[in-house]
Amino acid sequence: MSHILILPGDGIGPEIVQEAVRVLRAAEQRFGLDISLDEAPVGGAAYDLHGDPLPESTLDKARAADAILFGSIGGPKWDTIERDKRPERGLLRLRSSLGLFANLRPAILFPQLADASSLKPEVVSGLDILIVRELTGGIYFGQPRGIREENGERVGFNTDVYSESEMRRIAKVAFELAGQRNNKVCSVDKANVLEVTELWKEVVTDAAKDYPNIELSHMYVDNAAMQLVRAPKQFDVIVTGNLFGDILSDEAAMLTGSIGMLPSASLDENRKGLYEPCHGSAPDIAGQGIANPLATIMSLAMLMRYSLERGDVADAIQAAVEQVLDQGLRTADIYTEGTRKVSTEEMGAAVAEAL
Amino acid sequence: MSHILILPGDGIGPEIVQEAVRVLRAAEQRFGLDISLDEAPVGGAAYDLHGDPLPESTLDKARAADAILFGSIGGPKWDTIERDKRPERGLLRLRSSLGLFANLRPAILFPQLADASSLKPEVVSGLDILIVRELTGGIYFGQPRGIREENGERVGFNTDVYSESEMRRIAKVAFELAGQRNNKVCSVDKANVLEVTELWKEVVTDAAKDYPNIELSHMYVDNAAMQLVRAPKQFDVIVTGNLFGDILSDEAAMLTGSIGMLPSASLDENRKGLYEPCHGSAPDIAGQGIANPLATIMSLAMLMRYSLERGDVADAIQAAVEQVLDQGLRTADIYTEGTRKVSTEEMGAAVAEAL
Ligand SMILES: CC(C)[C@H](C(=O)O)[C@@H](O)C(=O)O
Ligand SMILES: CC(C)[C@H](C(=O)O)[C@@H](O)C(=O)O
Q1: What is the radius of gyration, based on Cα positions, of chain B?
Q2: Segment A168-209, tens digit of pLDDT
């Protein structure tokens, strides 16, 4: 029996997670899976209930689970509360407490949605990049940090810090994954300016020695931001630190034009993972039943593949998504003339049906 | 009399700077300017001569000048020398020693070159963004920094740090410049994670009170990286720190598809400045006479506008560039069928002629 914890979160989180659960139920039936589901509050919803965006009880359940399906968190309602209680901090603490150091963010162009991209079709058609972002280190968690008084004024400071072992373990994940793809890894740094990334470059280069079939290249982050716009198909796997990964993965996702389609996985050493859509909580459309549940459904597919080691189920879910896209079903965010606009629930039901 | 220091640097630097000087000579004649020119080595070229990418004599000349026209630096030849002697370090020391805290990077789409963009024409036509990047603070210069031993392994670390006054003075530059454009400033931070940018957001918001006509918005850096791809024309002026500015300005530049066209200015408190093309030293094509000198020529235009307060000369140089583009002249990097491919020198001569 596999234990999956559902963390719906805020904004559109509950709606989209509900559709992913519908698809999960359909997958259970079809493949005779043995899954127990539990649910817990996180983010602003948890703050409202317990005064904490990651209550102890939620963290305990997360530790006990084999995998976590996460909706989204945050919203204007919690933007002005005490810093440590904000929804984002709950997510950051969850990543850190569970040791979810490997963040996998695919940027894939769905041929059915090629028009949605702001890039020329020839630049992005067939795009399939995987960004491997380190998720529990770097400037996100580095100490010291804060705001201090100095010479009569305030000074803000944060520390970007990585140890060799942290760098090596994320590099290995990237090399392993590239081995299942096109054997190319581009490591992104700013080694010409920052010592922490100078060491990064050195360690990644050294780690590559165990992967003779992988072609490793290095790129400065400013150049990578350019190359993603100029010729994104030159990339297979990109590996980088927490902050650069945050920026580049969002840029890469937007190349596809349909961020409502993109899933992500955050894995620990044992491939236990948290799975969430790349998009945010979209408070402006929450509760209207028009959000796109496909990124969350694709996140469920990643969950099946990585944490439950059921690549067959993952493939079936992906095929079901492709099928409803082929049928012309579209939520509002990906709607174009000539297709059929459906609600969050209709989309979820259609994928479950296709499965 | 105005004193301009020429720093040709490495790679294609000397070739492109030579053409900018040709245009400067033509401008001198036409407008009866009184300019004295001097030249000094910088970057790898200076390292080869003096063992230092920024020799004391070069720095002295830079301090004495009213404005500096800079080519480009770096190349594989110097990639493996001692860290402190690398060409980039010379440029960073120059920026810091002269207090060039305000880096202005326009991303403008030339209608003649619209095809060069990898984005759809409707997304980028008429694009005109100005990125204002803080250039002498943040993680580029923050202490402590380095690589230390800890628990038997190496740990790399850097410090992102900004004081209120540093933040306020760059915000003011952005507001002033926006006032001469479309009165919109978007400040980019990662205030949901980094304390240093939380303070940034607060200080920029406060500084905006003196500019009631400016519409200020805030955006997280990951979202900004996305929005630049999705709908870049939503931006007028973007203001941000050193590292985010490095990344976003290169991304924005690439939206135009012709980075060989984009100039930049780095200004101190008194509008003394260093002017350089956005592109790098392109060692692969150095010495072939095929590099595009237009970004350097446009940098000369910025020099006229900001440091010499000769907006009229700047306008004339820009008009001359537009004219040669209209005539169909193109260097190899912007060549398309139906236009005329010219050398670096032919391009420079044509602009000088048009002037
Ligand atoms: C919400 C925020 C803290 C988070 C991050 O920066 O990691 C988000 O942008 C992401 O990429 O998952
Ligand atoms: C060469 C390098 C140090 C420099 C920087 O990062 O500032 C460059 O990328 C730039 O943007 O001018």
Answers
A1: 20
A2: 999 999 999 999 999 999 999 999 999 999 999 999 999 999
Contact B120 A123 (CB under 8 A): no
Look at residues B343, B355, B278, B287 and name the one whose alpha carbon lies nearest to residue B107: B278
Residue A223 Cβ inside 6 Å of ligand 2? The answer reads: no
Question: How are strands ordered across the β-sheet holding B35-39?
Answer: B35-39, B2-9, B67-72, B273-277, B263-267, B102-108, B128-134, B237-240, B184-189, B215-220
The three-class DSSP label of residue A134 is: strand
Catalytic residue flag (residue A250): yes
Please provide the distance, in angstroms rounded to a whole number, between the alpha carbons at the two ends of chain B. 21
Rounded distance between C-alpha atoms, residue B173 and residue A47, angstroms:
39
- Domains of chain A listed by start with CATH number: 1-110+259-355 (3.40.718.10), 128-255 (3.40.718.10)
* Catalytic sites of B, residue numbers: 140, 190, 222, 246, 250
The Cα B290–Cα A97 span in angstroms is 55
For an interface test with B, which of A254, A258, A333 has the most B Cβ atoms less than 10 Å from its Cβ? A254
**Residue B49 in contact with ligand 1 by CB distance below 6 A:** no
A-proximal residues of B, 81-120, CB under 8 Å:
83, 86, 88, 92, 118-120
pTM: 0.96
Q: Give residues with Cβ within 8 angstroms of B21, minimum separation 6.
A: B6, B37, B69
